[in-house]
Each structure stands twice: as C-alpha cells, then as structure tokens.
Amino acid sequence: MSDYTISAIGHIQSPYKQKFAIPRQPRLVPQAKAKLIFAPDFNREEFVRGLDEFTHIWLLFRFHETADKGYSAMVRPPRLGGNERKGVFATRATFRPNAIGMSAVKLEGIEYKNGQLSLLLAGIDLLDGTPIIDIKPYLPYSDSMPDASAGFADTRPETQMTVEFSPQAIEFVNSQTQYPDLHDFIANVLKQDPRPAYKKQKDGEQSYGMTLYNYNIRWQVNGEHNVVTSIEKN
C-alpha cells in the first residue's frame, strides 16, 4: 500500500453554506446553481478544451468538513431512517477512509472572466468551498445502466412534503432579482425534507433555519407541510 498526495484543482462556490439542507444526491434540486473556480495551477482554458461538448460531468471531491473526523466501517444511511447499519462501502456516506465523494452534475457553461476560469454547474449537492480533485465527462452510453439495481436506494427519494411561503417570504423573493429561481430553489430543497431522521418521527410543529446563498431562511414543519416564515439577507 502506498500513500498519495492529491492537490485540489479548484473549489466550489455553492449556495449551500452549511451541510444541513444539502440534497443527499446530485440533481435532486436542479435549481441549485454553482461555480467551479479553478486553482491557479489549472487556471488555463487548455485544461477544459472540448469539455463544452458534454452536457454533464463527474466531479470527484473531498468531504473537507468531515475528513478530519476519521471514518467508520458501519454507518446509518438516511434512506433507512437512520435505524439500520450498512458497511460504509455500501453507501455514499461522508465518513470514508479517504473522504472522497463524486457527483454527476449538469454543465451549463464554461466561463473565462477577468482572468479566472470557471465551470457553470446546476443540480449541485456540494457544500460551499468543497475542494474538487478531478473532473471527468459523463458518458451516457457507458455511465448510464438502466438495468442496474441499487439495493436499499433503488428509487429516487420522494416525500409528500408540501411547501407554502408566508406573505413576508413571498415579498422578499419577489423583491430580489439576483436569483430568479429562488422560490423554486427553496421549495425543492424543503420538499427533500432535510430534517434528521429522528426529527421526522416527532409530532407537533418544528422550527428550522438554513442559509442558502447569502440568505437566512426560517421555516416551520407540521406533519408533511412546510411554511417558509421569513427570508432575510445575512
């Protein structure tokens, strides 16, 4: 066995400023837009020449916020309600021996502006600041296997969660122009029901907060209904 040193080729600028509320897989929230900002050693257009011929790409990244916490041989997947243990290699959990993750995301464009090379991405599921260690084009004929089975995660996670915006929240969404998809973005994040599994089993109204982009968003959950009560700028 050998040890390897891997340097990040760039990092993600993401609307997700905290782990809470990040979708548990890519492309579940298509309105989640992000940028991959290339590091100085890779900040040249030659590195991505021809990449614009592909609609989707694979990102290999490091779970930078949990890497120092070590790994576990057994984990509790959220898809199983946090009640059943599986081997870490049978899941996509963050507590992995090398803290490496992967995401297949939509490539919406390549930007070279003011001397900075960036990729414009959508359907992202990565925390702001995530180090990217490699990029590979997504190949439908090879990477898509319709006859594959996926064990306990064989179907897209669905909930019955509904989302309502208070008048104050609607007013805020309509008054800002920076993010045209902000309403749908927030709604689709909440439809994924980001609460911890043990919280979902509790009755009664619960209040939560999250940060998306530079906004503090507060909402309440009662049963399977969310009400966005307020949105404020940080």
Automatic annotation (TrEMBL):
<dbReference type="InterPro" id="IPR023370">
    <property type="entry name" value="TrmO-like_N"/>
</dbReference>
<dbReference type="InterPro" id="IPR036414">
    <property type="entry name" value="YaeB_N_sf"/>
</dbReference>
<dbReference type="Pfam" id="PF01980">
    <property type="entry name" value="TrmO_N"/>
</dbReference>
<dbReference type="InterPro" id="IPR040372">
    <property type="entry name" value="YaeB-like"/>
</dbReference>
<comment type="similarity">
    <text>Belongs to the tRNA methyltransferase O family.</text>
</comment>
<dbReference type="InterPro" id="IPR036413">
    <property type="entry name" value="YaeB-like_sf"/>
</dbReference>
<dbReference type="Pfam" id="PF18389">
    <property type="entry name" value="TrmO_C"/>
</dbReference>
<keyword id="KW-0949">S-adenosyl-L-methionine</keyword>
<feature type="domain" description="TsaA-like">
    <location>
        <begin position="6"/>
        <end position="147"/>
    </location>
</feature>
<dbReference type="InterPro" id="IPR023368">
    <property type="entry name" value="UPF0066_cons_site"/>
</dbReference>
<protein>
    <submittedName>
        <fullName>tRNA (N6-threonylcarbamoyladenosine(37)-N6)-methyltransferase TrmO</fullName>
    </submittedName>
</protein>
<dbReference type="InterPro" id="IPR041369">
    <property type="entry name" value="TrmO_C"/>
</dbReference>
